[in-house]
Fold this sequence. Notes:
This protein has helices at residues 36-44, 74-89, 107-110, 147-163, 178-183, 198-216, 239-253, 268-280, 293-302, 312-316, 320-326; strands spanning 7-9, 12-14, 18-20, 50-52, 56-57, 94-99, 115-116, 126-129, 132-135, 140-141, 168-173, 221-225, 257-261, 285-288, 307-310. By secondary structure, it is of the alpha/beta class. Helix 4 runs parallel beside helix 6 and helix 6 (198-216) runs parallel beside helix 7. The longest helix is centred in the middle third of the chain and has 19 residues, at 198-216. The chain is globular, with a radius of gyration of 19 Å. The two termini are 21 Å apart.
Amino acid sequence: MKLLQKGLFGDISVSNRIFHAPLTRTRADRDNVPGDLMATYYAQRASAGLLLAEATMVSNGTQTWLQQPGVHNAAQVAGWRKVTDAVHAKGGRIMLQIWHPGRATHSAISGAEVVAPTDKAIMGSEIHTPAGKQAYPAPRRLRTDEIPAIVESFRRAFENAKVAGFDGVQVHGANGYLIDEFLRDGANDRSDAYGGSIENRVRFLLEIVDAAIAVWGAGRVGLRISPVVAVNDVTDSDPVALTAYVAQQAAKRGLSHLEIRHGQHDAPQELAVAQAAREHMKQGLVLNGGFTRESGEATLASGLADAIAYGKAFLANPDLPARFERNAVLNAVDMAHLYTTESPQGYIDYPSLAV
């Protein structure tokens, strides 16, 4: 099986092409520190070719979920070190996804002012806060002179991830959060150097990517985008052109990987985006979105991707590569306990195959 073939993604050797997609699970402690529960979860899944850890707060005040992990203080770094040590003890490889929510949060959760490239609020949905569901607030539009400080906060987080023992970092440029809000013209209504043309809208992302490269080297830096996923009220008028430019820049820099987050990988627009990425990203292209064992294998065989990232299948099946190898039945997802804070249920209690 091509899914089970070894490979090299930048400077990271992988034992297979079955990657663990970044999955927010809200199992850190109340101070956003990863603990033993998270270490157990990731160690259970260390047979993934590459573990992409969940969206992790770049700095204080960038929280969207209670008990979401951060990587901006010493306690959080020490907590993540437990995770990476546990994964490495099992022979695994793990990268940390680093993230800023932009307007997709609320001061009742983050305790901070909500900022974004725009002053327009997310419409069409509500956010869960300690006081119940509320409308998303209108963010404050970031000034141009404030952007370098945010880039610097990412650089510090990349350094912290290195201290925490990760094998690399993934920049979260997807799902309608801050970087994606700059990328897509459905949210970015700026007229300065960070708005308008595709090149301008991608500028913020590339400044962050370059900061990661300065800390890690390009071969240990990955990137996730979601050009056609209409989440958090973010869309784009030409996702194929946007993807092509991002992929061209990722390839030019020699990134470890570019992950394309799809809604459903075989939808026509999703395929067009994947093909545009492949045209420029000749190696290190990771696709994600509704793949099965069979469709993942077929996609690798076609040459469209170099690895497949699995989300729900991996959270419910800690030994997913072994199950794919044996074509074994998969565990069902315990949907009721996806985000149950501090609970092992639906998190580390999924059974593995009998040896």
